[in-house]
Amino acid sequence: MAKVAVLNMQGQQVEELELSDAIFGAPVNEHLLHRAVVTQLANKRQGTQSALTRGEVRGGGAKPWRQKGTGRARHGSIRSPQWAGGGVVFAPKPRDYTKKMNKKERRIALKSALTAKVADAKFVVVDELKFDEIKTKNMINVLNNLKIKKALIVIDKNDANVELSTRNIQGVKMALTNTINVYDILKYETCIVTKDAVAMIEEVYA
């Protein structure tokens, strides 16, 4: 089992924690990591983009000039694509970009992402994250103590003080154990996870 140091909010080690090999020591499947990220980004797309083809643009019923004798190129409509204000060639239309991924594949991808963070020493465990008030400076002080600038912070349950103290810090995002995903884990350089959140991850994804 991999062991990581458990730090307090002052950045001091208070104990050592053994991580489950089933989740934090799993084989890293790069193919499924890639599929998970592509699937998540594709499913975020609205698919509402739309442009007009030459058949949908208003006007252009009459031939702009006669076929021969003018010295200019022949044209049949001022709404053909090469004209300003004309239609778009192969115009994009509303469509569904949704991709699907099996539940087992998603689980393997998540384990791979967590394992990669542990292997790169970018998985930081803290004993707790608790603030008496909503204050961005409190979270900034914790990040400074941990010597971390950009991170995904994972906690086990909703805490308004922690969430609102984190919201305005650029490059930092807070998530619950049941909302973590492969894209966010890979996007943020470091994962800061509370000890209780680690236990919940091991319980849910075992």
Distance between the termini: 14 Å
Radius of gyration: 27 Å
The CATH class label of the largest domain is: Alpha Beta
- Level-2 CATH architecture of the largest domain: 3-Layer(aba) Sandwich
Question: Widest sheet: strand order?
Answer: 2-1-3-6-4-5
- The share of residues in helices is 25-40%
Average pLDDT, rounded to a whole number, is: 94
**Largest pleated sheet:** 6 strands, mixed
List the helices and strands and how they pair.
Blueprint lengths: L2 E5 L5 E6 L2 H4 L5 H15 L58 H17 L3 E4 L9 H11 L4 E5 L4 H7 L5 E5 L5 H6 L2 E5 H11 L1
What this model shows, in words?
The protein has seven helices and six strands, in the order ββαααβαβαβαβα. The chain is α/β, with parallel strands linked by helices and 206 residues long. The protein folds into two domains: 3-45 and 99-205, Ribosomal protein L4/L1 (Ribosomal Protein L4, Chain: A); 47-96, no CATH class. Strands 2-1-3-6-4-5 form a six-stranded mixed beta sheet. Helix 5 links the parallel strand 4 and strand 5 (172-176). Helix 2 (30-44) crosses helix 3 (103-119) and helix 4 (136-146) crosses helix 5. The longest helix has 17 residues, at 103-119. The two termini are 14 Å apart. The model has no long low-confidence stretch (mean pLDDT 94).
